């Protein structure tokens, strides 16, 4: 029986640190995100409220969209 190494076994995968240096938005990024929907009328107010609730309470997207 002959075994052959997969060619992908020679590839080096970068550490997660190299891929994602931080996992949270900076305060300026949050401000920009929250200012964007305010320009869209009633739907903008709804979207602003949803984004603010997600940010303040640490909700995942799946948790936010399951709200009724």
From TrEMBL:
Q: Give me the segments passing through the membrane.
A: none
Q: Name one GO molecular function term.
A: DNA binding
Query: Where does this protein come from, organism-wise?
Result: Petrachloros mirabilis ULC683
Task: Using the record's annotation, list all stretches that form the Tyr recombinase domain.
Answer: 20-68
Superkingdom of source: Bacteria
Task: Give the range the annotation lists for the signal sequence.
Answer: none
Q: What is the name attached to this protein's record?
A: Tyr recombinase domain-containing protein
Which InterPro entries has this protein been placed in?
DNA_brk_join_enz, Integrase_catalytic
User: What processes does the entry annotate via GO biological process terms?
Assistant: DNA integration; DNA recombination
């Amino acid at each position: 029986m002959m075994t052959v190494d997969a060619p992908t076994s020679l590839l080096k995968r970068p550490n997660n640190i190299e891929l994602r240096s931080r996992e949270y938005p900076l305060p300026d990024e949050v401000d920009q995100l929250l200012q964007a929907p305010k320009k869209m009328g009633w739907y903008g107010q709804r979207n602003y409220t949803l984004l603010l609730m997600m940010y303040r309470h640490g909700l995942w997207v799946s948790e936010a969209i399951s709200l009724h």
